[in-house]
Write a structure and sequence with these properties.
about 550 residues; alpha+beta; Jelly Rolls; 3 domains; 6-stranded antiparallel beta sheet; globular
Length: about 550
């Protein structure tokens, strides 16, 4: 007892007890927060995504009870520790699974603010914004950019100098175009209806019965900010058959434009269910000075009123912003796309290539790989458009400049319903001129196919023989080049020995290629070596019993 009193009477012991109590009190909120974080994480771990994208339990039951439990625990964790970053991250995942996209975006945004150097938070926030984009599209009733070809265009009528036209183009092309404005503070370009003042674009459409809003951004092309001028005035008119009425006007001068997009909204509820003509108009500023009047309507769309909070988030821009914050590159997405394409999951591959194109919109690589995916789907026209888009971009990281030209040539030559030999030849020649192939085999095949078309066009034999020789030089194992070189030698020089040597080489390289035996049989037949010719045709038919050309030649010999 005396020992206890002596200890209690010691001031250092008292200090230690008091300090321990204070530390326990201070640590209590963090301990409780950690408990709720762990409990919320356990509840969330029991929920997973099914093949169709729904969030469910492993046994197929509804995930809602577990999601609600996870959300309750994670909210409690944040109540006790408002800076518990991991709780925000898990809460964002739970809200996403529950379908509350705005809450998910808010929670994950808070996580990225607390942990800006953690790429996972930015990647997951981008996933939420992608989901918001998808949700927003379900509420878009009319996209003015998509329907621009149907609009009635009115302009000043005289030619002006803009980046959208060249001398000799119709004046209207200079005033109105579909494009994208990239504001300096934005992570990505915004789809834009370009209109140079003065001009008008009128659209006739039937509005839905639901309440809709015309939503858009107002901006001036950054290229023109230093040009001076007095800005522009944006106007919206509606004509429901009772005469045109102005329902919106907005001024934008250069200082305002330099702050970024300025939002615009026009409520069209009064015209629900009616057929109307909506006119988007841009006129010069108050001094009627047209210098720098490169106006843009950012993403002009008719959307459901309830979608306005989603629009305010600018999800398309935020997706790219978060990818960049995470340090992702177009090549990261292309690599994922290539995994899917090689597994023949072409639609999934296209989605990854589309992400790559959004992340680096000036890069040709994503469009080249998009073309490969469309080839896998046998959508030849879409593949052609993708390869041409890659060529137009002109900037490549991993793709070689000759490759998209080569793929264009293959499609023009072999994949369309009617061969387009001239277009194929032009593509091969562009590939050869660029002389930047991904591999020797590709360069070799390009020369071979160019020679093949020259042969079809009955060009000088020396031309296509040179192409076959170049193909073999680059790829000695190119069996088809050996075959046609042998055929060409015989056609030009009647040199049976040289022709036979080339085709025999092709047989060694590709013993199951029926054409090697067929072409050698043809040479023997023309030389009167009937038995040898018959043996070659029979060999070709062993490989392909339905080989009509060989059947016909063999029957001729028998007769």
């Amino acid at each position: 007892m005396k020992t206890v009193k002596r200890w209690l009477g010691n001031p250092w012991v008292f200090f230690l007890i008091a300090a321990s109590g204070i530390l326990a009190i201070l640590a209590f909120p963090y301990a409780v927060s950690a408990y709720h974080l762990e409990a919320g994480g356990r509840a969330l771990d029991q929920v997973g995504r099914s093949a169709n994208g729904e969030w469910r339990m492993a046994n197929g039951e509804s995930a809602n009870p577990h999601l609600q439990s996870a959300i309750s625990h994670l909210q409690a964790a944040l109540h006790w520790d408002a800076r518990n970053s991991q709780a925000y991250r898990l809460l964002g995942r739970a809200y996403l699974a529950q379908g509350d996209l705005l809450a998910a975006a808010e929670a994950l945004t808070r996580f990225t603010e607390l942990r800006p150097d953690n790429p996972l938070g930015h990647i997951e926030l981008a996933e939420v914004y992608e989901a918001i984009e998808t949700e927003l599209q379900a509420h878009v009733y009319y996209d003015f950019l998509t329907h621009l070809p149907e609009a009635r265009i009115e302009t000043a009528g005289f030619w002006i100098d803009t980046i959208f036209c060249e001398e000799g183009d119709p004046p209207d092309k200079c005033y109105i175009a579909e494009t994208a404005f990239h504001m300096p503070d934005d992570a990505a370009p915004r789809p834009t209806l370009f209109m140079h003042a003065p001009s008008r674009a009128s659209y006739t459409l039937t509005l839905p019965e639901e309440q809709v809003v015309l939503s858009f951004g107002m901006g001036l092309h950054p290229l023109t900010w230093s040009w001076g001028g007095d800005g522009v005035t944006y106007e919206v008119f509606v004509d429901d058959g009772q005469g045109e009425q102005q329902i919106f006007t907005g001024r934008l001068d250069v200082p305002d434009a330099m702050e970024g997009w300025k939002g615009g909204r026009v409520d069209l509820s009064a015209y629900a269910g009616r057929t109307v003509t909506l006119t988007l108009s841009v006129i010069p500023g108050p001094e009627w000075e047209m210098t720098g009047d490169w106006a843009g309507w950012g993403e002009p769309r008719l959307v459901a009123t309830e979608a306005l909070p989603l629009i305010a988030l600018r999800p398309a821009e935020q997706v790219v912003r978060q990818w960049k914050e995470a340090g992702l590159t177009a090549q990261d997405f292309i690599a994922r796309g290539e995994e899917e394409r090689k597994a023949k999951r072409y639609e999934e591959a296209l989605a990854w290539y589309e992400r790559a194109a959004r992340l680096e919109p000036g890069l040709g690589d994503p469009w080249y790989y998009t073309g490969l995916a469309y080839e896998g789907l046998e959508q030849w026209v879409a593949a052609l458009e993708s390869y041409q888009r890659a060529i137009d971009m002109g900037s490549f990281t991993a793709v070689h400049r000759s490759s998209p030209y080569y793929r264009l040539g293959v499609i023009y030559q072999w994949r369309l319903e009617s061969r387009q030999a001239d277009a194929a030849l032009a593509a091969y020649e562009a590939a050869i001129e660029a002389d930047d192939f991904s591999a020797d085999w590709e360069a070799a095949d390009c020369h071979y196919k160019r020679g093949e078309i020259l042969w079809w066009k009955k060009a000088d034999p020396d031309e296509y023989i040179a192409e076959y020789q170049r193909a073999i030089e680059l790829n000695p194992k190119h069996a088809s080049a050996h075959i046609l070189l042998g055929v060409a030698y015989y056609a030009r020089d009647k040199d049976v020995a040289a022709a036979e040597a080339e085709i025999r080489q092709a047989i060694e390289l590709s013993p199951q290629n029926k054409w090697t035996y067929y072409h050698l049989g043809e040479i023997y037949r023309q030389e009167g070596r009937t038995d040898e010719a018959r043996a070659m045709y029979e060999q070709a038919l062993e490989i392909d019993p339905q080989f009509a050309a060989a059947q016909e030649k063999l029957q001729t010999l028998i007769n």
